[in-house]
Each structure stands twice: as C-alpha cells, then as structure tokens.
UniProtKB/TrEMBL annotation:
SUPFAM superfamilies: ACT-like, Periplasmic binding protein-like II
UniProt GO cellular component terms: chloroplast stroma; stromule
EC number: 4.2.1.91
Upper lineage: Eukaryota, Viridiplantae, Streptophyta, Embryophyta, Tracheophyta
Function: Converts the prephenate produced from the shikimate-chorismate pathway into phenylalanine.
Name this polypeptide is given: Arogenate dehydratase
Domain (Prephenate dehydratase): residue spans on this chain: 117-292
Organism of this sequence: Citrus clementina (Clementine)
Subcellular location: Plastid, Chloroplast stroma
C-alpha cells in the first residue's frame, strides 16, 4: 500500500508529576515539570502531555478494506532501524492532533467517523470485525492472524487502534489477552459489548440433512452444543468462526457446514440454514479498545478502571487489597488471577514444610474514573503494600449491546 508520512518540526513535551501525600486519602500537591525530548524526524508527532507516553498519532485513509497483518510482517526489534523506510511505506498518512484525547474528544472522533485503522483478530466476517466497526464507525478494519499481531501492529504504528475480546458471558475470560495486556504497553481507552448470534451456514444447494460435520471455533461449538447434538453433527474445531465459513466456501464442501455470523455468510456466499442456534440467548462478548496513548478520564459519564497488581504471600493479604475499594464504596466488576510468568514459584520463608507456592497477578476492574478522588485514594492505599501496580486504563463504560 503506497502511503506517505508528513514530517513535523514539533517537539513533544513529557510531564513528570511528583506527589507527596501525607495520607492516602489526602489530595496530593502536584509539581509539574516539562522537558523537551529528542524525536525522530520521520514521524508527524503530536504534542502530548499524558501520564505515561508521548507519541500517539491519529490517522487513517480512504480505503475501507485492508490486507491482513501476519506475524512475519511485524519487524523484529533488531531489524527495526534498518528497515524503517520499508515499514513507513506501509503506514497511512498521519494526522497531527493538538493534545491528548479527553473522554469528550474521544467520543467526537468516533461520531465524526475519523478514518482510523483498527486491528482485530481473525478474517473478514469475524465477530471481532463487527465489534471494531461498532467501536469506530467507518473505520478501516485490519484483520490480524493472532492476538499478538494486533498488539504489535498498534505499537509499531501500523494501525491506530486494536479491538480485542477479553471475556465472554458463557465462555469466561480470554486468558491470552490478559497476559498480552501486561506484556505490551498499550492503554485501554474503551470497551465494546457485542451480542453473539450464531448461524449454521452451508454452501448453496446444501440442506441440513446433507451435513455430517460442522466447523467453527471451539467456544462457538460449545455455545451451540444442544443444537448440534440434536442435528447429530460431528464437531471440528478451527481457529475462528469466520475462518470456518471461509474454508467451507472456498473448498465447496457439501457435507460440512460452519457456525459463524450472518455477515460471514454474506461475505463468503453461504446460505443460512438456521439462525440463533446458540444454547443461551444471553451470549455477550466484551471487547477492549486499545491505543498507544490513554484518554484523559472524566466524570461526565460512568467510567471503569482496569488495573493489575501483585501481592506478597500471607494471610488476609488479598482481603486487605480488595478492602481498599470496599472502604470507599467502589464496586468491583471483575477480578482475574494469572500466574506471574517470570517467577511462577516462590520459595517459602518459614519451616512449614511447603517448599514453594504459586505467585499470581490480579487483574481488577472497578466502576470509577481515575478523575474521581476516591479512585485515586484507593490506588494510593493499595500501592502501600502491593509489590507491583499498573493502571491499564480508565475509560467510559459501554452501556449498549448490539444484537
């Protein structure tokens, strides 16, 4: 894809904040200092003064479709400088933004239909593509083979955003993406809740009684277990739902169908033999909207904040950590534990006879904005005894579900 990147003489500003609260529930006095940073001249850089990073660009182009991003297309760290010209050629023209996005400006970018390049995992017709289009109407949706590829595409400026699933109301959490949130330095800037409606698809002329097997993602097959059992179909798991539809179509299979979306049927020329075949009608997937820069949290609407932290081992330590929210009447909507990969086992310091035990990270979502003093006080309190704490994002709550 031919593209050009404008050069800019702008020098971004980084902000260092020093806070010295006397107690966890007192408002800190902040001293803000600015210093110039050296910026490569090959990017059109916006002036930023956000909490963690200084280098996001908002951009897009006029093409609706985009080629899939493969892991091989992401440059390795040690090859990045040598291949910078080639990587720049794959970027869209970037548009300078005058400052960090507030929650109000963030909504304006969506409603005004800015042509953002948004990465999602899967192929065309995936539920993730529909979620990306709900999050960013009129965006250029960019399919990626793997979740890792989508994260790296945002970090490498190949796309502007990523929309990836994090949990399903029936299947639970997508653990891979929790791990990737910690590995990468992206920020959660929003969420999308999307109602999943599975269809049984087949090639034209194929009837239900002709089918002997059905292909789809393992979770989709599990969510339609009762229907597929009644039909007596053998289940075959593949990487994603839309990929199953694509395979059935391209191979012109006559004895196999696919469980996928109605949009996948339209894209790959398949007939819909049955609609809404999921066992539970309340099948909703929550997606996270990821960006290189955080948005500035506000109090003009309901907000959610996502954090990850670790604790020392000991009686009541997790209870103490969660109590910092309960004491301030902050509602928790999600808690997830994941093994600490770099140090999964820790030696015991006592003589109890147990040599090692597991170390965990805790991911927590709570209903409060980081602009709220209660949330700031809660995290300041938690930081007093947490061994690690990171705010993944503070973002507006999605109160709509698209069927």
């Amino acid at each position: 894809m031919a593209a050009s990147v404008a050069r800019s003489q702008l020098t971004p500003l980084s902000r260092q904040i020093t806070a010295k609260p006397s107690q966890s529930d007192q408002t800190p006095k902040c001293i803000v200092r600015f210093r110039p940073l050296n910026i490569p001249r090959r990017f059109n850089v916006a002036v930023k003064a956000s909490i963690n990073r200084n280098d996001e660009k908002i951009g897009g182009n006029n093409n609706k479709t985009a080629p899939a991003l493969h892991p091989q297309s992401i440059l390795d760290d040690d090859e990045e400088d040598a291949a910078s010209n080639d990587s720049l050629n794959s970027l869209p023209r970037l548009v300078c933004v005058s400052g960090p996005l507030s929650s109000a400006q963030f909504s304006n970018f969506v409603s005004n239909g800015s042509r953002l390049r948004v990465a999602y995992q899967g192929v065309r017709g995936a539920y993730s593509e529909s979620a990306a289009e709900k999050a960013y109407p009129n965006c250029e949706a960019v399919p990626c083979e793997q979740f890792d590829t989508a994260f790296e595409a945002v970090e490498r400026w190949l796309v502007d955003r990523a929309v990836l699933p994090i949990e399903n109301s029936l299947g639970g959490s997508i653990h891979r993406n929790y791990d990737l949130l910690l590995r990468h330095r992206l920020h959660i800037v929003g969420e999308v809740k999307f109602a999943v409606r599975h269809c049984l698809l087949a090639n034209p002329g194929v009837k239900v009684e002709d089918l002997k097997r059905v292909l789809s993602h393992p979770q989709a097959l599990a969510q339609c277990e009762n229907t597929l059992t009644k039909l007596g179909l053998v289940r075959e798991a593949v990487d994603d739902t839309a990929g199953a539809a694509k395979y059935v179509s391209f191979e012109q299979l006559k004895d196999a169908g696919a469980v996928a979306s109605s949009s996948a049927a339209a894209i790959y020329g398949l007939n819909i033999l049955a609609e809404d075949i999921q066992d539970d009608c309340d099948n909703v997937t929550r997606f996270l909207m990821l960006a290189r820069e955080p948005i500035i949290p506000g109090t003009d609407r309901p907000f959610k904040t996502s954090i990850v932290f670790s604790l020392e081992e000991g009686p009541g330590v997790l209870f103490k950590a969660l109590a910092v929210f309960a004491l301030r009447q902050i509602n928790l909507t999600k808690i997830e534990s994941r093994p600490l990969r770099n140090q999964p086992l820790r030696s015991s310091d006592d003589n109890s006879g147990f040599g090692k035990y597991f170390d965990y990270l805790f991911y927590v979502d709570f209903e409060a904005s980081m602009a709220d003093q209660k949330a700031q006080n809660a995290l300041r309190h938690l930081k007093e005894f947490a061994t690690f704490l990171r705010v993944l994002g503070s973002y507006p709550i999605d109160t709509t579900i698209v069927p």
